[in-house]
Amino acid sequence: MKYYCIGIKGTGMSTLAQILHDLGNEVSGYDDAKGHKFTQDGLEKRNIPIYYDHTHPIDKDTIVTYSVAFKEDHEEMKRVRNLGLTVKKYGELMGDVIDLFETLGVSGTHGKTTTSSLIRHLLEETVGCNYFIGAGDGYADKKNKYFVVESDEFNRHFTYYRPTYSIITNIEAEHLECYKDIDDIKNAFEIFANQTKKLVVANGDNEEVRKINYKTKVKFYGFKEENDIVIKNMELLETGSVFDLYIDNELFGHFDIPLYGKHMVLNAAAAITIAKELGLSQEKIHKLLETFHNAKRRFAETKIGNCIIIDDYAHHPTEIKVTLQAVKQKYPNKRLVVVFVPNTYSRTKDFKEEFIDAFSIADKTYLTEIDCNRECQEDYPGITSHIIVDNLKNAEMISLDSIDKLKDEKDSVVCFMSCAYVDKLIDSFKNLIK
Fold it and tell me: 20 to 30 Å CA-CA from 187: which of 49, 85, 118, 303?
């Protein structure tokens, strides 16, 4: 089969393109962004062509999929429509691909990437697995039985999925440009949960997760005693996190993870539960978790002299808050500085107060202007980064041209946070402090 992916440098689309290629298909794609993005590393490794023009030929038997950032009036979208090519939604095509395997679908407002990466690590080192992880990271082999899939609720993508096992890490208000309210979001998760064939592993401490009407068998995990899987004796240390995990009132084991924050312990508990369901022993799981390295842009650290630079994908206030708390866990005696690139006008508008509360953990916060490729500023009059900066103590605006505002942070922890690309900001800061 031949596939053409419009928006191929997007994290999800890049991953899908890599998987389609690994399964023996001929894959190419288009993108507006000519500059290098980390998501194209896997594409280049596979020699998948990336086009930037609207004149290259596309065979008539090619199936086209596209990112929602590309509207119907985009020149490349109009071209493939005029050519009469078969066009499938991204989520629909993903559903078709993962149906070929026993799928482990990881969903949730937060924690999907880390939990998917944990499960991938546990299976890859034992029984083998395919994986689709939203950090531009994908791989598939027809010989593998299992497929770990980060199952994104954005634009209801995951409602096309029919996993064998699924995880729901949490449900919160998010993507309100796609959903009416929290009940609408919960209903989408309910569809996903009830399309699961064998077992749902769900965070029982989360109120919205508990409200789902489960038709598939469900096991709840969390810190509360009423859960089926209970985390006890947790310690959050400068070297990582340790805890005991009880399953059905019996101690399954003690675990040490090189991750920081209560939220990471919850993610690990979900991954351990799935691994146990698939037959991995406590001893094997414990040993493998000690060697885990998280996905790209998840608490990714670089040290230059006494400065710690962290690159993190956090973009929702809850993610920002728990990540900054994790930084405080690991570096309790260092000054904490945040550089944040807001990614959508709608999220900035909907969660203004929550952003202000989250950033209050830091000693100093900088925001750039909003960097959005799927919303138009004119649709959100008056919504700029200033609605956060002007109401937050110790905050100010920053840009690539004013990066020298960070020149005195050579002994600090500086967190660059966004789901947008922050590479140029980080590189400029590195050059500044060197």
Answer: 118
